[in-house]
Write a structure and sequence with these properties.
- With 976 residues, the protein is α/β, with parallel strands linked by helices.
- Strand 10 (187-190) and strand 11 form a beta hairpin.
- The longest helix is centred in the last third of the chain and has 20 residues, at 797-816.
- It is globular.
- It starts with a helix and ends with a helix.
């Protein structure tokens, strides 16, 4: 297509032939211009098929109009095989069903867009599982796994994806539907007229290679190269797996198709074999002097028939420890093997583990049988895989040479020589991988941005190295754009000619994913970050990215964890995507649009940018949950700042974005304001004028703010304990007098945020009582100050800085004397910790103030002599998103456990997210997000159970949508 008008016309023509969305918007094309690789290729259009007919019509249209077609699942390909210049077909949105499960035959029939973890959840009640389990299993799709021949750590036990495939139904490059497998009759159907084509075969599978015209002759002509150069070891994944065409290998077209990376057909449906869940497993961690020494011991380890052998380098463990603060105890060493053994019973699995320890030559070991500890240890591997996106010294680390494999017998020597190669090129990375199979994963700080030719040189040298050791460029990720050109190093011209011949039998016109595997694009073409200039941030310091907004938004390398529902493991990201299922609403999709902005392809004020960021809740979950550390809330705020600075803003920015200003005025006459807000006509009129959704209720102002109550009690100069001066706490304190007097332990400053002050002053009074019982004199800032959060979330960063300067002025003297600042509203506490140093980088006091801030729970736990009251309650607790992202919920979790209550801790955003859920146009999504976790939990909550939430937004959302009031931890600790 030569221009946007042509693209729109083509899209209209295709829409007339399909029953699904065809999108050619600049925003959508930006979202699909990259996957998890180093490459950027802008497509012509993106299609979201609802069924086979849509796929067939799209492929026919592409053929008629000279467009390529690239299939895509979750877009987690690190090799660049899920992007293309023509039509990208996203199977994940609608074609994602489990068609059938046959428990007796242990098979499942699935659509290509089905997420692996969804399949596993479907199978678990039947005692079955799909064998391969890549690290992206919570978002990768079965179609993508078939395209790459995915493996994962348990390939030792259950094989690669090619080992599980029984039958495939595809559209080849001529738009002919073909089905091949092991237990049905062969057929082909032309999508042009739907006519069933007679292939001359109606015999049970396998019907022979003539199911694909010319394939039998092709195989006969290439027997020598197929036998001598392909299938030499299990992880030889580069190129096509044509060894499966050999008669001694079963002449399986389906298995040969697996790993073809979308270049030979579009998958419509697959039948796969399943495996029984093991009766019991035991994890043994073996310690060695380094990872190469661990690799030397693989032969001994494999004698015990483990089901998984994963290797981890000390550098990866160090990064996880830095990120998390701690890791579970590991055996002595600087390189480790995580070895999982299985048995019918726990005793049997343990016996194998003990045999393993005897057979191995490790320096130290740990046998772990506790399920929670095992999970924590495996999490080192899972977290490390994500954190490997940064080198040990903090530079961006890239894929490209992240998936090499060699026969395990050569692995130790290969790793030592690879270390010498990386030292020669002055690049580094974090090593881990499936050592039992000889597959090594590492992302390296390759000089893609400023020296792409050196990047190219390294890849070719690395390819020659792996070939010298009898290895493969790829062990499970595929070759894609990252390694297809390197196939000339690995394979002879005869093999590469065979690859081209095989593709031509399926796709004679090179429609399907061109430039991959056959006639490859150069490895240094279409690099996403090559040649980009720095873009200085205007609002935030972006300390971790040296002030460069381009570097910041390119933290997103497309891993796609933001597409996963990680709530079961405590993850919060990404609430908008979980509600809509649209790539637009992922952290990754937004980052891709912003990457187009810093490239100069889009303007900061473009409607595409506005659309992309509109449904971002600014929950900050991505800043902690994203392995790459993408902080979309910050980038959104920076973008709004650039868009509206010195310009007229939307009215809700002035109303909700400057809410503390208006609440301070409202508190002068709270009863009058509440009366006016209760009048339906006035409330709706005011909300419409302010662009607030009229379905929302207005929270009720407290009759008396905390500051007024505080002043009435004597303010910071008062001498009488609150429990004596304030009658509600005098009653609560009966029989529970504090062991120390206020002031004996010094002075603590209670941060009084706007929402606590004006809506829930009792929370601050309860906190004061708790702190005084601990022996502290409690003071509050002498003047009304604000963290500026509402200004930040609407991009009014000049206003936010003004408020933060006043805050630093108010707190600095107290902090300079060693005092702590205790916050009650999690979002404000997080702002003081994270955003304050970013917005006032030149004020040395800002970092000291940020370091002094504590949540109430954190402050209480810093005193070992403090004990929470015992309770027998059932509690549902909603951690605040900002607290999850910035400080964590560990202290609160520890206190609740010490109280003895039965806790159900929710994971995920409540959906209100400050001003987001109040804004016009956001109500429906706000409710949808609440339905992810909060509302289902409250609907099943017993009447006498407690809903605990420190965040004002969380309590408001629960009260408005579920009519369930919430308690702040401070009040819960005081109430009997």
């Amino acid at each position: 297509m030569t221009n946007r008008v042509d693209a729109e016309r083509a899209a209209d023509a295709l829409r007339a032939r399909v029953g699904c969305v065809v999108d050619v918007s600049s925003r959508r094309l930006a979202e699909y211009s990259s996957d998890a690789s180093n490459y950027r290729v802008r497509p012509t259009m993106v299609v979201f098929p609802r069924g086979d007919d849509d796929v067939a019509a799209t492929l026919e249209f592409a053929r008629e109009n000279g467009l390529s077609v690239t299939p895509r699942g979750a877009g987690t390909s690190v090799a660049g095989n899920a992007i293309g210049p023509g039509i990208v077909v996203d199977f994940s949105r609608h074609m994602n069903a489990v068609r059938a499960v046959d428990v007796e035959s242990a098979t499942a029939r699935v659509q290509p867009g089905l997420v692996l973890s969804d399949l596993q959840a479907h199978l678990r009640p039947h005692g079955l599982r799909f064998g391969p389990d890549p690290s992206t299993q919570d978002r990768c799709t079965l179609g993508g796994m078939i395209g790459n021949n995915a493996c994962g750590p348990h390939a030792l036990a259950w094989g690669r994806t090619s080992d599980t495939v029984r039958e495939l139904r595809i559209l080849d490059g001529t738009a002919t539907e073909r089905r091949f497998g092991t237990d049905s009759s062969i057929s082909a159907r032309s999508s042009a007229d739907g006519r069933l084509l007679d292939t001359g075969h109606r015999t049970p599978f396998p019907p022979g290679l003539s199911a694909i015209p010319g394939l039998a002759e092709f195989t006969r002509d290439n027997l020598a190269v197929l036998r001598t150069e392909l299938g030499r070891f299990d992880r030889q994944a580069s190129g096509y797996s044509l060894e499966h065409l050999l008669p001694e290998r079963g002449s399986s077209i389906a298995k040969a198709f697996v790993g073809s990376e979308g270049t030979c057909g579009l998958l419509l449906e697959a039948e796969v074999e399943l495996a029984p869940l093991p009766g019991a497993t035991v994890l043994t961690v073996l310690g060695y002097s380094d990872i190469a020494s661990a690799a030397d011991d693989i032969a001994a380890v494999m004698q015990c028939a483990p089901i998984a052998v994963e290797g981890i380098d000390a550098g990866l463990v160090d990064v996880v420890r830095t990120h998390r603060g701690t890791v579970p105890d590991l055996p002595r060493g600087r390189g480790w093997l995580f070895v999982e053994t299985a048995g019918a019973t726990p005793a049997e699995a343990l016996a194998v583990a003990r045999q393993l320890v005897r057979e191995a030559h490790a320096d130290d070991h740990r046998i772990v049988t506790d399920a929670a500890e095992t999970k924590a240890l495996w999490r080192i591997r899972a977290d490390g895989a994500g954190l490997a996106g940064r080198s040990p010294d903090g530079k961006p680390a890239w894929p490209g040479w992240e998936d090499a494999a060699v026969p395990p017998v050569n692995l130790g020597t290969y790793l030592r020589e690879f270390a010498s190669l990386t030292e020669e090129y002055d690049v580094s990375g974090l090593l881990y991988g499936h050592l039992g199979d000889g597959c090594i994963h590492v992302r390296l700080d390759l000089p893609i941005a400023d020296a792409p030719q050196r990047f190219r040189s390294f890849l070719f040298d690395a390819a020659h190295l792996v070939v010298r050791h009898g290895g493969s460029l790829s062990g499970e990720h595929g070759d894609g754009r990252a390694r297809s050109e390197l196939l000339e190093v690995m394979y002879s011209p005869a093999v590469r000619t065979a690859f081209a011949g095989f593709k031509s039998l399926f796709d004679p016109d090179d429609i399907l994913n061109p430039g991959v595997l056959v006639a490859p694009r150069p490895v240094d073409t279409d690099l996403r970050v090559a040649g980009l200039s720095p873009v200085r941030a205007h609002g935030f310091a972006l300390h971790n990215d040296k002030g460069d907004l381009s570097t910041a938004v390119h933290r997103c390398v497309g891993i796609g964890k933001c597409r996963a529902d990680t709530g079961a493991s405590g993850g919060f990201m990404c609430p908008s995507y979980l509600a809509t299922g649209d790539e637009k609403d992922t952290t990754r999709g937004r980052a891709r649009v912003l990457q187009e902005v810093v490239r100069g392809e889009l303007d900061w004020r473009a409607k595409e940018v506005e659309e992309s960021l509109d449904l971002c809740l600014s929950c900050k979950a991505c800043s902690s949950d994203c392995p790459a550390g993408v902080d979309m809330a910050t980038y959104r705020s920076e973008t709004l700042y650039r868009r509206y600075r010195r310009r007229l803003r939307p009215v809700d920015h002035y109303v909700l974005g400057q809410l503390p200003r208006w609440l301070a005025l409202a508190q002068r006459a709270p009863r009058l304001v509440n009366t006016l807000a209760a009048a339906t006509f006035l409330r709706r009129l005011g909300m419409r004028l302010s662009r607030i959704d009229t379905r929302r209720e207005m929270p009720t102002l407290a009759p008396k703010s905390f500051r007024r109550t505080w002043s009435a009690l004597g303010g910071n100069q008062r001498t009488e304990p609150l429990s004596r001066a304030f009658s509600p706490f005098a009653q609560l304190a009966i029989g529970r007098e504090p062991g120390t007097q206020p002031g004996e332990r010094g002075t603590v400053m209670l941060w009084i945020d706007t929402f606590t002050d004006t809506f829930d002053p009792e929370n601050a009074l309860a906190a004061t009582e708790l702190l005084e019982r601990l022996g502290y004199r409690v003071v509050v800032p002498a003047t009304r100050v604000c963290c500026g959060l509402t200004w930040i979330s609407t991009g009014q960063l000049d206003g936010a800085r003004a408020r933060l300067r006043a805050t630093v002025d108010a707190l600095a003297a107290h902090v300079a004397e060693g005092g702590k600042v205790v916050g009650l509203e999690p979002s404000c506490t997080a702002t003081l910790r994270a955003d304050l140093p970013e917005l006032l980088p030149d004020d040395p006091r800002a970092a000291r103030v940020a370091a002094s801030v504590r949540t109430l729970a954190e402050f209480l736990l810093e005193h070992p002599d403090w004990r929470p009251p015992a309770r027998a309650d059932t509690v549902v607790v909603q951690p605040h998103c900002h607290q999850h992202a910035v400080g964590g919920f560990t202290a609160e979790r520890t206190i609740l456990a010490a109280m003895g209550v039965t806790v159900r801790e929710l994971a995920g955003c409540c959906g209100l997210a400050g001003n987001f859920g109040m804004q016009h146009g956001h109500y429906d999504l706000s409710v949808a997000v609440a339905n992810n976790a909060l509302l289902p939990a409250l609907e099943t909550l017993a009447p006498d159970a407690i809903f605990l939430a420190d965040g004002f937004s969380c309590r408001t959302q629960a009260a408005q949508l579920a009519r369930r009031p919430g308690l702040h931890l401070a009040r819960y600790l005081l109430e009997r």
